[in-house]
């Protein structure tokens, strides 16, 4: 359809009915305008990604797990609607509170933070976390997980999270209350885009001071992520917010094409839910269309929807829509295939004679 002509669908005079389903509501959104329309179209695009068996990455920035949304992510993993994840260390750290039964409560944003400090309460907007009963307790859990018994060999953050999921699965009070344990069960790789910028890394300091080393193989990690895209017939990203998780998933295209000299073209589909503005020049607000100039997406005109909204509002609507109309998919279990995918990309890279290194005399 030519967007410069008067050819669009008629805007209906919308009526709501008490018997309406989530599908009906999304259709209302999709038939309207502004960000309501974008949300409706995003929900339908997510359903298309699932139906086409695309390899789907979920990126999560911001504080989504402290508000309990890890349970939504867990459901997506169980239904096979998410195949790999990129998130912040903070989201992984706070998600583990629920598995171990550590208190997280609704609080208030209209508060005197000096008094909260005196009462040993940590605040994330209007969510309260106890300093000792939650954070200190979680710190002890993390320190024990990744102490002297943690191997000294190079590791990726996917391996880090997989081990964390395994230990929480076997020892936590409520292992069912964590998408990290579910990712471990379903072999969903969970990458932490900036692990050093989180309490996960802070808790490694006590062991590093005793001369234990931690060798993060971040290059292997980015190759694994690109290998997932390389092996996918169709691929897409569902982005909650922006930040480093967004770019980590999107840079798989430039790694394949710009650096490894391929012509694969990037992601087929991307949905972004964000409140960041594009005019400030930051990555969080960068339009998905702009990504085409970097080779991050296949098509600047199709397969992309940006919803300018609070993810805590839009994400549950989008997820409930696909849960209502899409059948459970067989899990791709990418974590166990990472070595194979890495090798496939490596072999194909060296098939090009220009990439073969000459032996030294």
Characterization of the model:
The protein is of the alpha/beta class and 361 residues long. The protein has a single domain, classed as Deoxyhypusine Synthase. It is 44% helix and 11% strand. It has 15 helices and 9 strands. The chain has helices at residues 22-30, 34-51, 70-79, 89-99, 113-118, 131-145, 157-171, 179-186, 199-202, 205-208, 218-231, 243-250, 252-259, 311-325, 338-350; strands at 55-60, 84-87, 104-106, 121-124, 127-130, 190-192, 235-240, 269-274, 304-308. The strands form 2 sheets. A 6-stranded parallel beta sheet has the order 6-2-1-7-8-9, with helices on both faces. A 3-stranded antiparallel beta sheet has the order 3-5-4. Strand 1 (55-60), helix 3 and strand 2 (84-87) form a beta-alpha-beta unit. Helix 3 packs parallel to helix 8 and helix 11 packs across helix 15 (338-350). It is globular. The mean pLDDT is 96.
Described by the principal axes of the CA atoms, the overall outline is globular
Overall mean pLDDT stands at 96
Query: How much β-strand is present in the residues?
Result: 5-15%
Cα-atom Rg, whole angstroms?
Answer: 22 Å
- Care to count the β-strands? 9
| CATH topology heading | Deoxyhypusine Synthase
Number of domains: 1
The main pleated sheet reads as: 6 strands, parallel
Low-confidence stretches: none
Query: Can you list the strand order of the major beta sheet?
Result: 6-2-1-7-8-9
Q: In CATH terms, what is the architecture?
A: 3-Layer(aba) Sandwich
Helix content: 40-55%
Report how far the terminal alpha carbons are from each other: 62 Å
CATH class category: Alpha Beta
> Which structural class is indicated by helix and strand composition?
alpha/beta
